[in-house]
Amino acid sequence: MNVLEVRGATKTYDVGKTLVGAGRTLHALRGIDLAVRKGETLGLVGESGCGKSTLARLILGIEGPTSGNVTLAGKPVGGYGRLERAKLVQPVFQDPYSSLNPRMRIARIVAAPIEVRGIGTASSRRERVRAVMNAVGLPEHFTEVYPSQLSGGQRQRVAIARALVGEPEILVCDEPTSALDVSVQSQILNLLARLKRELGLTLILISHNLAVVHHLADRVAVMYLGRIVEHGPTEAIFGAPRHPYTAALLASVLSPRPGARLPEMRVGAEFPSPLAPPPGCAFHPRCPCAGEGCATIDPDETRDGPRGYRCHYPLAHA
Amino acid sequence: MTGPLLEVRGLKVEIAVPGGMTRPVRGVDFSVAAGETLAIVGESGCGKSLTSLAIMGLLPRAARLAAETIALKGLSLIGLSESGWRRLRGERIAMIFQDPMTALDPCYRIGDQMAEVLRQHRPVSAEAARQRALELLTRVGISSPEQRLTQFPHQLSGGLRQRVMIAMALLCEPELIIADEPTTALDVTIQAQILHLLAEIQRDTGIGLILISHDLGVVAGVAHRIAVMYGGEIVEIGERDAILGRPLHPYTEGLMHSIPVPGETRRGETLGFIPGTVPRQTGELTRCGFLERCPYATGRSAAGPVPLREAADGRLVRCVLPLDGSGRDPAAWTRQAEGV
Ligand SMILES: Nc1ncnc2c1ncn2[C@@H]1O[C@H](COP(=O)(O)OP(=O)(O)OP(=O)(O)O)[C@@H](O)[C@H]1O
Ligand SMILES: Nc1ncnc2c1ncn2[C@@H]1O[C@H](COP(=O)(O)OP(=O)(O)OP(=O)(O)O)[C@@H](O)[C@H]1O
Ligand SMILES: [Mg+2]
Ligand SMILES: [Mg+2]
Q1: Which value does ipTM take for this structure?
Q2: Residues B66 and B187 in one domain
Q3: Which of A72, A224, B224, B312 matches a 20 to 30 Å C-alpha distance to A274?
Q4: What is the pLDDT of residues A139-148, one digit of tens each?
Q5: Residue B31 to residue B42: CA distance in whole angstroms
Q6: H/E element, B163
Q7: Which CATH number characterizes residue A264's domain?
Q8: Is A3 helix (H, G, I), strand (E, B) or coil?
Q9: Which of B187, B315, B335 best probes binding to A when mutated, by most A CB atoms within 10 angstroms?
Q10: Binary contact (B43, A212; C-beta < 8 A)
Q11: How far apart, in whole angstroms, are the C-alpha atoms of residue B137 and residue B285?
Q12: What is the rounded CA–CA span in Å between residue A31 and residue A300?
């Protein structure tokens, strides 16, 4: 069963509007289709500005799509009340420093989602907070401290505990480890892997770190300028990318092993403006494989078993 | 035989904080040769930036510097006057920061900023300065450079701004460039391009480069030598492939085991991690600074401060029982209780 479905979702923003001048339209999402099964981890990757966080906000119901629809458990996100929605989907954001209220003790921060929904009694809530803090590896004596007394990794655990306390179906993690050192990142990745295994949690994992996505995701969707240009099972995408942009992203993964060389980058440097998306395939100005038609004809999705891509000249693999 | 380009010995930085003195840099020694890239890696707060700021004479006011030697081609930089620093900075040592927006003036056009830097150090005409700026923007791979000269920093993308920073650093043909997390704020695709650019410039010009990063992947492709810092000290320093391939200090090994590597680590497998956090120590170290977090620590680790010692392959390691690449048990990094 799909717990999350996105159909033809677009999102535009009016920007640069002044008292006298007309504004311009920024195309943040240009038609997103997505289905996520219960218990699945979907990795969302792509360059800065491609629309990952915007898509996350639509899934969380923080904003509505300009057109198209987003459904959670079979019902449009907009059809849920705020508290109902919070029971289904919860966010974990990048910055564990600004996302926690500095004046609240950890126990209250973690309990907030079930407190506002009035779930259980005060003592059952305390019990639940204890259980969830234990599950994310926070010692019990942390209940009475303030966020400023915790390390970055501990704060991110608090953010995850708060997201989990109401037992949501879906966790949307937007760059959950980008602000953390590698030795702390690995603890958060271990934690997410365990929660996924033990609780059957559905995870939307947004990261520009492809190694992180490879490690946790069952499926990957690669975004470029507001579109999903390729998606499929993680091993298939990493092993044999069909879209030249996916290949370029994968080539940019830096290995810390001896003898690692700098990757050869064969794509241009400039991400196009979402104010004026290039015609045809939006990637064609940077694409090393671009040929006839790429500058004029927007490629439809080609399906290939469990995967799909939008490209006129997909990469071949033996 | 000529001496090193940059020589640093016994570099210490102390900062007064409420209730005492912190010692974020505790006696760091290294040198950089012309044409060499030395990478400094380590977790947040280990003292990487303060080390580089000390070399640039840019430490915050509250900080106190002590060092036996900081010398650029034999010229001592200790106690240099402010005007001495101004002549040196930009001219002989240049710095590239993580966030170019903090180093670029938002109110001035790119061309004017570049010309100003050049004319601080060289008696050149406005037109000559413009030509030099154009030459360098082209050199760092910026297309239509004439147009860029007239733009303001905020009109450029992050990747372009970082290229402008690199072009500015090269203006006066410095002998040493210090790049502090030059690609941390950039996309992975642009990161790879900027690293290529730095490596290429270094090959062509033979400058010395200090590359500071918390990311071992970033340094693996660029560095000749790597210094691993922990708690204000260098705990391991040596040739790149030796350090990455066979870490001798447990901290370095712990870092290597924390990173998922597609194609090597199994998907979803438990990754290694370094338990705990860097303890904040104010006084002199009386024992190994990594002891509390080290799965291999023994009684000897607590016996006294640990000096840097030379290992068989010539690298330096600060450990009483350095790893020997065999026999030890790297699974120690994943087995520890998941406590915090
Ligand atoms: N509220 C808003 N108003 C105007 N433009 C917006 C708004 N939110 C996002 N955008 C624009 O929409 C585009 C997509 O932004 P988004 O934050 O979703 O990208 P992202 O993929 O998350 O990038 P990053 O990797 O940098 O986080 C960008 O061009 C951004 O500037
Ligand atoms: N102005 C200051 N006053 C007090 N403490 C400071 C000051 N600047 C730095 N420190 C402390 O000194 C230590 C080393 O800081 P430094 O900026 O060199 O770390 P770093 O290795 O560059 O870390 P990062 O990877 O986060 O940039 C840190 O613990 C930091 O909190
Ligand atoms: Mg984002
Ligand atoms: Mg720093």
Answers
A1: 0.88
A2: yes
A3: A72
A4: 888 899 999 8
A5: 18
A6: helix B158-170
A7: 3.40.50.300
A8: strand
A9: B187
A10: no
A11: 47
A12: 11
